[in-house]
Structures are given as structure tokens and as C-alpha cells.
Amino acid sequence: MKLFFAPTSPFVRKCLICAAALKLQDRLELVSAKAHPVVRDVQVVQHNPLGKIPALLTDDGLTLYDSRVICEYLNSLVQGPLFPADGQARWQALSMQSLADGMMDACVLARYEDIVRPEELRWPTWKSSQLKKVSAGLRALETQADTLGQQPDIGSIAVACALWYLDLRYAEIDWRQSYPHLAQWYQGFSQQPAIAANWQTET
Questions:
Q1: Domain spans of the chain?
Q2: What region holds the GST N-terminal domain (predicted)?
Q3: For every residue of 146-172, which 3-state class applies, written as one string?
Q4: CB-based contacts of 20: which residues, under 8 Å, 6+ apart?
Q5: pLDDT tens for residues 68-89?
């Protein structure tokens, strides 16, 4: 399988953590790709018309995107435990993934405002509004930190990726100071080998 990959994408990281947790990392060939909203990577567009990563080329000829689809596909290959099959646990895990994905989306959009949009066209209110979504997500996660647990599922993995990306791009937010229960959970959860792995992280 081939995964179009950029080391600082939190959505790519989510796929890589799932692969590692499922012992599938050796079956993935990482193909370096550009994650840019304007100058799209031609090699990615050939497989994903949106030009976004991650995108996965499977061994049987499928092209899968986005991270939610890829992670569930990887889990299905080994009938893994990352996606609860049914009941309340499934909906909680999927909702937690949606919350974390929304936080990552907001972080990425805020960053694009700084590094992609021409300076004369930047809109500070847009950036601050995106980061307000992140703060709201952190407040919600603080109240639910006790439900996350240390056993990885798609919800907890997505939350870990959102927090990792905050540390990478917005360290000045210092979320650990304001959200101690979430910080305590992440300190333990992030020690697991699949969560702590580093895939050529660059700035």
C-alpha cells in the first residue's frame, strides 16, 4: 500500500498511528507529497481530485481518502479494535474523532492564514475565530478526559493527533496549563510506542 504523506500533517499522523497500532506499518510505503491548498501536488491530484492528503493506494487498486476512511480501512484489514463495532462505544469514538478532526481543521486553517495568504489580504478575525474553535474543543475534552482511557481507539488517537499538532504549531497556547485533566491523560497516552513514534517530523 502507498500512503501520500507529509510529516507535519496531523491527519496523516492519525493514519500512521493507526497503522502502527494495528502492526501494519511495514505494509505502508510512504510517498512524500506536498500539502498546500493553492499549489496542489500533481501526483496527489492524479489519485485524489481534491489534491489533499492523506490518500491511500491499496494493494487491490482502490484509492481511499480522507483520514477517516483510511483509518477504518486499515482497521478492517486485521479486524482491529480501533473502531468499536456497535453500540454507545462506537458512537462515542466516532464523535470524539469528529471533534478532534474539527480542531485540527481549525488549526490548519489558522496556519494557512499566516503562511499562505498574502500579508495584505490577511484577516485576523478569521484566524482568531478558528482558534476559538480549538479552545472550545479543548474545554470539551477537559470535561471528557476521564472517558478517553489508555486503550487506543479512533477517538483517542484523533485527540492525541490534535494535541500533538497544537504542540507543533501553537505551543504558545500552553493548553496543558489550562486543561490539567486532559494534560494528565495525554502524558500517559502519548508514551505508547504507536503514539510516540516520529515520522521524519520537519517544520
A1: 2-77, 87-190
A2: 1-82
A3: HHHCCCCCHHHHHHHHHHHHHHHHCHH
A4: 193, 194, 197
A5: 999 999 999 999 999 999 899 9
